[in-house]
Amino acid sequence: MSETNDLPIAYGDIHTDIVQLLENARRAAARSVNALMTASYWEIGRRIVEFEQGGEDRAAYGEALIQRLALDLSNRFGRGFSRQNLQQMRAFYLTWPMDKIRQTVSGISSQKPQTMSAESSPTPIVQTASGQLLTLSNLAEAFPLPWSAYVRLLSVKKPEARGFYETEALRCGWTVRQLDRQINSQFYERTALSKNKVAMLAQAEHAEPDDAITPEQAIKDPFVLEFLNLKDQYSESDLEDALIQHLADFLLELGDDFAFVGRQRRLRLDDTWFRIDLLFFHRRLKCLVVIDLKVGKFSYADAGQMHLYLNYAREHWMKPGENPPVGLILCAAKGAAEAHYALDNLPNKVLAAEYQTVLPNEKLLAEELERSRIELEARRLLGSKNEGEA
């Protein structure tokens, strides 16, 4: 009998523990390396910007500098230092400037014991206005997200929205693909416009895996349709015409996975003709999406009508390999309780979403989101306290 077969049954436990320890260590090492590289990219951006600010002659030389650096750094270090990447590093520094990083690093430093003075640090990078000496390790702590996440955040032009996505990505542990999905779905705007912001922020903590998606995640609520330029008084026909005239903008608001199928799709039941306002197909859900437009407030009767449409679409329009159709009632307003009791536990998936034709003040949106985030954190702390007392 071999020596390995003589080991006690408990060997499986220690083997599992050691494997988990090593895997965690490797992941931590990878995160540390990624953070240090992100810090290095920020520092490269800082040096490029400061070189350009060194005088008129240097400013004019800025683009040539990036081209020359791209060539020389790529020859020495390989991929990752193209002209576009260096421009992103420059933009990275400008978007996360020194004063912002100094505040972040100071906040982190105040929360942990100091084992080495800044003066004795072996890898000084730059001394801040407050006299604190930043190192790559300091900077790495200021950038907890991967570099690809910061590249994606650079595309968010509004500072309030960018800060929101950065905070939520860190709080919820989003992958870069999940962050990209939330940005594309305008999660910031929808959360700010939602009547239950705390619930939406809490739901973001439980994002589905990258390749999984539910109808609730695929369909926004609310929709922002300010591009329609509708007057104060308009009919459902006016709303539908405006959506068709601005179909490209509407598709952008719906999301990348929606494909337009048709409008006013007719169906006949007994001796009565019905018309479906808009019909789309969702590629990831692999199903038809039936949209019914309502200028007024959502009513439980709307759910019954949509249920009829979906039963018909399932029987006559659904093709082999597709999932059952989903219904969306797009309305000007909805009562949470009425929507809950009218839509829950139906045989068909029916959703109701509000639309906004005017964007509210950006500052008010940011303030409401911050209040909601504080409320969510207070609820979490209260829940933890109650669990501890139980």
UniProtKB/TrEMBL annotation:
A UniProt-annotated Pfam family: YhcG_C
Residue intervals of the YhcG N-terminal domain: 17-190
Alphabetical list of InterPro entries matching this protein: PD-DEXK-like_domain (IPR053148), tRNA_endonuc-like_dom_sf (IPR011856), YhcG_C (IPR009362), YhcG_N (IPR041527)
Molecular function per GO: nucleic acid binding
Residue ranges annotated for the YhcG PDDEXK nuclease domain, each copy included: 217-369
Protein name: Nuclease of restriction endonuclease-like (RecB) superfamily
Record organism: Methylomonas methanica
